[in-house]
Structures are given as C-alpha cells and as structure tokens.
Write a structure and sequence with these properties.
Blueprint: E1 7-11, H1 16-27, E2 32-37, H2 40-48, E3 53-57, H3 65-76, E4 82-85, H4 98-126, E5 129-134, H5 138-141, H6 147-167, E6 172-177, H7 185-189, H8 197-205, H9 211-224, E7 228-229, H10 234-244, H11 246-261
Parallel strand pairs: 1-2, 1-4, 2-3, 4-5, 5-6, 6-7
Helix pairs in contact: 1-9, 3-4, 4-6, 8-11, 10-11
C-alpha cells in the first residue's frame, strides 16, 4: 500500500494518532483525505491545513457513520482506497458499568464492523482496498485496570485477523496498529488519567511515543503490508512470552499489577 494517489478516510482524525496520520498521508501524496471526528471543529482545523482534505463530524458509535464518511469520500475524491478505523475510547475502571461497556464496544469494535460492511463489497469488486484498524497493545497483552478496554481491543485485533483471513487473498489488505503508550488525550485523560492504574501500567512498561513516531511506523507497515504494526518493539516480546507459556505470562501480569498498585514511597 503506497498512499500516494490514494483516497483515505481517518476516523479520530482531529487529534492524537489520527491527526498525525492525516498529516503524514498528505505528505505522502494522498489524493484526498476525509478527516472524521466527533470533534467537528477539530476535524475542520486539521482539514483546512491541507489542500486535499475535507472534514466530517461524526460519532463512530453510530453504525450509520460508515455510509456517511465513505459517501463523502466518494463524492469528493472517488472510491476509498484506505480506511483507517482509528477512533477509540478508553473508558471503564475494573469491571466498569454497562454504559462504559456499551460505549467501548460501539466505538472500539462495532465501528470497525460497520466500516468493513460498507467497504468490502466495493473492494472485492475492484480487487483492491486496505483496512487499517487501530487497536492497542492491550489487544495483545491485555490492560490492567480496565476490562472494557482490554476486551474490546482484543476484539478489534480479532476482527482485523478475520478480515485478513477471509479477504486477504481477494485483494483486500489489512493491518492492525497496536501501540503501547502514545502521548495523546486517550492516554493522558483515559482510564483515570495520570493517577489511574492503566496510565501507570502503560508508562512503566515502555517509553511513551509521540503520534508522529506512530505515523512513521504506519507508513512502513503499510508499505510492507505487515499485519501487526508495532511502534513499540516490546509488544512483540510480550506476545512471544504469552504464547510460549500462558500461565507464566498471567503470573507476570499479576506481579506487574501488584507493583503498580503499591503506593509511591515518600521522598526524603
């Protein structure tokens, strides 16, 4: 997947990883970019910086968003070549509430399904198209502190796997982006913020990257059509440890949780 000359849709494009992807795709010569976000004003600010972008305000938790976004892209630029299901939420502490579960499932999983349902028929007909799912390292190594985040990110990885298995030999490319900590509102404000267990676990496990670092990894991953795009190389090591000895991995995760739950020692 060479982004040059392609029509791209990016959800969650007003900030964080999505914003970095939009600018990087523009630099790579994308033909047209749809910047989609719940934050209409933020999406507009990003799109107006570019000559080849439009902004669409939408809630990806609404299944109708997929037709709205893809129709807007088709009318402005032509058929969608690359869809980046990037919007996500980090909600729910511990077992969380039903409302947290509904929001996490709708945004982190069902939005991907709705987009694929709208796109796949046309991609199969043209024998060309690419789906980039932003999941998380939590989709591979779980998320201490939040059941909704851990479960829905696992589901996002699983859905991307299924798309690749089912349509990968029929002209549809699929990649799944699984970073750890990235300096975005999702990390800094989600899962209880900087005082939350999730934030402390993520920042203790690996360096926090900038969104531009993740965008670089995405461009490389798309060029190679790599399924798992891992801006943090540590995630591959976590996956290998998990696969080689599941019980030992679970015990290690419990130890990590206990360590980050300890109150900070007072300074002298």
């Amino acid at each position: 997947m060479d982004v040059a000359g392609k029509v791209v849709v990016v959800t969650g494009g007003a900030s964080g990883i999505g914003r970095a992807l939009v600018y990087r795709f523009a630099d790579e010569g994308a033909k047209g970019i749809v910047v989609a976000d719940l934050d209409q004003e933020g999406a507009t600010d990003v799109a107006t910086d570019l000559d080849n972008a439009i902004a669409v305000g939408c809630d990806v938790g609404d299944p109708a968003h997929a037709d709205v976004l893809i129709s807007a892209a088709e009318q402005s630029f032509g058929p969608v070549d690359l869809f980046c299901a990037n919007a996500g939420v980090a909600v729910g502490v511990d077992l969380a509430s039903p409302a947290d579960w509904d929001l996490a499932l709708n945004v982190n999983v069902r939005a991907h399904i709705a987009a694929a349902q709208r796109l796949i028929p046309g991609w199969l007909e043209r024998k060309n198209g690419y789906f980039l799912a932003t999941a998380s390292a939590a989709g591979i190594a779980s998320q201490i502190g939040s059941a909704p985040y851990a479960v829905t990110k696992h589901a996002a990885v699983a859905f991307a796997e299924w798309l690749s298995i089912t349509y990968g030999a029929k002209g549809v490319g699929v990649s799944c982006l699984c970073p750890m900590g990235v300096n975005t509102p999702l990390l800094n404000d989600g899962l209880g913020g900087e005082d939350g267990l999730g934030f402390r676990v993520v920042t203790a496990a690996a360096p926090v990257l900038e969104p531009d670092d993740v965008a670089d990894a995405v461009i490389d991953g798309l060029a190679d059509e790599t399924f798992l795009i891992l801006p943090h190389p540590e995630v591959l090591e976590f996956l290998q440890r998990k696969a080689s000895d599941y019980d030992r991995w679970l015990a290690g995760m419990r130890r990590l949780q206990a360590r980050v739950e300890e109150p900070p020692r007072p300074r002298d």
